C-alpha cells in the first residue's frame, strides 16, 4: 500500500546512527517530520540534510522531531551526521523495508530510491506528504508553516 494524507503510517523500528533501535511509536504526542532520502553524501541529500540542520532550532521550537531515513547502514549515517554536524536522528532502513511498507515511489525511472517527506501530527496522522527531488530548501519552509499550525 501507500501511506496517504490522513492515515497513520505503519510503525517501524530501525537502528539510528549510534546503532540504537528507534521506533516511530515512541514519538507519539509530538509532531514528527520523517524524511526518506536516497543516500548519505549524495549532493542533493547533503543539501537537504544541511537545510534541515540549519532550521533545526525552528523545528524544535515547533515541538517537532526530525528523522531522516535511508538504506545506508548506521556507520555510514554516523560519519554523515558527524561530517555535517547533523543534530537529528538518522535511521537505517536496510533492505528498504520501511520504504516499501510506506509505498514510497522511486524516482528517475526507478534508478534511485525516492525522496519523500512526511509530516505527522501529535496523533501520528500524516498531515503533509512532500515529494521532493529538486528543492530541498523550499519544502522546509512549507513543513515549518504546517508544524506551526498544528
From TrEMBL:
The regions listed as transmembrane in this protein's record are: none
Catalytic center residues: 45 (cysteine sulfenic acid (-soh) intermediate)
Q: Tell me the keywords, alphabetical order.
A: Antioxidant, Chloroplast, Disulfide bond, Oxidoreductase, Peroxidase, Plastid, Redox-active center, Thylakoid, Transit peptide
The protein's matches in InterPro entries, at most eight in alphabetical order, are given as: AhpC/TSA (IPR000866), Peroxiredoxin_AhpC-typ (IPR024706), Peroxiredoxin_BCP/PrxQ (IPR050924), Thioredoxin-like_sf (IPR036249), Thioredoxin_domain (IPR013766)
| Domain (Thioredoxin) ranges | 3-150
Q: Does the keyword Chloroplast apply?
A: yes
List the GO biological process terms: cell redox homeostasis; cellular response to oxidative stress
| GO MF | thioredoxin peroxidase activity
What the entry lists under PROSITE patterns is as follows: THIOREDOXIN_2
**What quaternary arrangement does the UniProt entry report?**
Monomer.
Q: What is this protein called?
A: Peroxiredoxin Q, chloroplastic
Q: Whose protein is this, by species?
A: Linum tenue
